[in-house]
Amino acid sequence: MKLKNYVRVARLAAGASLLIGLGDYALLKIGTPLGPFLFAFGLLGVCVLKLNLFTGKCGFLFEDGLKLSELIVILVANLVFGYLVGMLFGLIDEEVFMAANNKMASWEFSGEFFLKSALCGVIMYLAVAIYKKGSPLGILLGVPLFIFCGFQHSIANVITMGAAMGLDWSVLLCAAGNFVGALVAWALCSGIVKKSTS
Predict the structure, then answer these.
(1) % of the chain surpassing 70 pLDDT
(2) Residue 77 is part of which domain span?
């Protein structure tokens, strides 16, 4: 039963990777100013369909009864399937392949990169928390916000890596930053944003 549960968790994470991949494809293909708003389709779909996205789940680790082992499965599945989705996009679209390579060139394993990842985690927690309160505006505005600010989203980044057919260990620093930022936002806002009853 335990294994069956983890398989289900991973399957829902794979679905989330596909949705975020579609959003990232639009961002790489179209760029600003329209791309960041179309990217919001991914997170909105994840929330509506109740899929498993690491950056949308980690801030709710203590609210939703999510086990740490399940969160790890979600992260691994998001990274693996996200990379594969990105590879598909890079193979079918040369423009996306080039844009992904250019984007990867701007990443670096640094304290600044970690901070930008943490700030993305803050926004992701708030976006999902606002959605759970009944409004999609947190997602529709929060996603473009983190993109325009240059904040770093680990699952979007691994999809970009796949599209570029490259590897960059900064994605692990990014995931850590997303996790820390989401937990900080949860700690500061948990008294205001109550657990969803749905």
Answers:
(1) 95
(2) 2-189
Establish if 196 belongs to a structural domain. no
In angstroms, rounded to a whole number, what is the distance separating the alpha carbons of residues 190 and 183? 10
Burial of 166 (0-12, 13-18, 19+ CB in 10 A): middle
Number of domains in the chain: 1
- State the Cα angle at 185 between 184 and 190, rounded to 5°: 110
Closest by CA to 152, choosing from 189, 107, 195, is 107
Task: Give the residue ranges of DSSP H helices in the chain.
Answer: 2-30, 34-48, 54-57, 68-92, 94-104, 111-132, 137-148, 154-164, 170-189
Is the Cα dihedral 113, 145, 80, 136 positive or negative?
A: positive
The Cα 170–Cα 162 span in angstroms is 14
CATH number of the structural domain spanning residue 88: 1.20.1080.10
Is the residue at 83 inside a domain?
yes
State the pLDDT confidence band at 196, using cuts at 50, 70 and 90.
very low
The mean per-residue pLDDT over the stretch 95-115 comes to 96
Q: pLDDT tier at 21 (50, 70, 90 boundaries)?
A: very high
93 domain residue, yes or no? yes
Phi, psi of 13, rounded to the nearest 5 degrees: -70, -35
- Domain assignment present for residue 198? The answer is no
State the amino acid at position 76 in one-letter form: V
Whole-prediction pTM value? 0.92
